[in-house]
Amino acid sequence: MALAFEPIQSTGFDKAELFWREKEFPRRQFVVFLWRLFDMRTYQNWIGGEWVPAESGQTIQNVNPADTREVVAEYPLSGKDDAVAAIDAAKTAYSGWAALTPVARAWASSG
After folding, report:
1. How far is CA 59 from CA 43, 63, 74, 76, 80, in A?
2. Number of H helices, E strands in the chain
3. How many Cβ atoms sit within 10 Å of the Cβ of residue 84?
4. Cβ neighbourhood burial of 76 (10 Å; 0-12, 13-18, 19+)
5. What 3-state class would DSSP assign to 62?
6. For 32, left (φ over 0), alpha (ψ -120 to 50), or beta?
7. Most C-beta atoms within 10 A of its C-beta, which of 8, 27, 52, 108?
8. What is the structure's pLDDT at 33?
9. Domain ranges in the chain?
């Protein structure tokens, strides 16, 4: 995964192959290592009961401070319009949410 501001000297596969050759990881740990090496999470805003990107379409990336070539996650760069949409959605949902019992709210929040 290359970033525009810095060329990559070594790919993740090179690192993975090196670890595999040196047998630092048992097979299962090696698979987890690869998954984490190439897994970048992308997040969105939860507005009105659905996941939506920022109105602007812009995102911001969070990089690993130990290796700034590695992007850990990408978040929506939300603005005023996104905040207004979230507030409006919350106002609309409030009466239904308030009518739920605490147990029902906990169940709904747990996914």
Report:
1. 9, 13, 6, 4, 15
2. 4, 5
3. 11
4. buried
5. strand
6. alpha
7. 52
8. 58
9. 9-39, 40-109
Query: Can you spell out the DSSP letters for 11-46?
Result: -HHHHHHHHHHHT-S-HHHHHHHHHHHH--EE--EE
CA distance 98 to 81: 25
DSSP helix/strand/coil, 101 = coil
How many Å apart are CA 5 and CA 71, to the nearest integer?
12
Radius of gyration of the chain (CA): 20
List all residues 6 or more positions away from 83 whose beta carbon is below 8 Å from its beta carbon.
none
- Is pTM beyond 0.85? Reply is no
Gap between the Cα atoms of 74 and 101, Å rounded: 35
Q: pLDDT tens for residues 20-74?
A: 454 555 555 555 555 566 677 889 999 998 999 999 999 999 998 988 888 889 9
Q: Decide if pLDDT at 105 tops 80.
A: yes
